[in-house]
Amino acid sequence: MEGESYPISEITADPNFSHVRSIHTKIRGVTKETHDGVNRQQIISHFCRCGDALYLIREPNNPVDSNAIQVRRIVYSDVPDKPRLREQLGYVSRELAEKLAPKMDADGFVLIAWIMNVTGGEDGESLGVNIQIEEYRPARHPIRGSKRPSY
Q: Within 13 A of 58's CA, how many CA atoms are on the CB side?
């Protein structure tokens, strides 16, 4: 566990991707350990703050859910303007992943998120993380229902 979290405010829009929508949800699996055996609750308590940027990655070979989408921290790197991915905080819910995974796989949609707030933690209660997911479509795909072409 290392690296200062990258704020969502430093991520600039890519003109090759159009914003589709924002989705408010919570990260699932935050009480589990990462694949390296690191406690996600420790990562959340030490590193996660409101406004931190997150990246969502497909995990099609997940043995439990072939639509699985990981939620990972984005941190600063030694190279300016080249943030890197760090620990996995958990997953997008199964229901939401079922809708988003096909878009990511077949249509090249990109999902970036940010932490809205960290909840819980009082009286031995587990921490939770509420996030906002920003869904982006590659510009080559026209917006469904739109009469205006997308270039």
A: 17
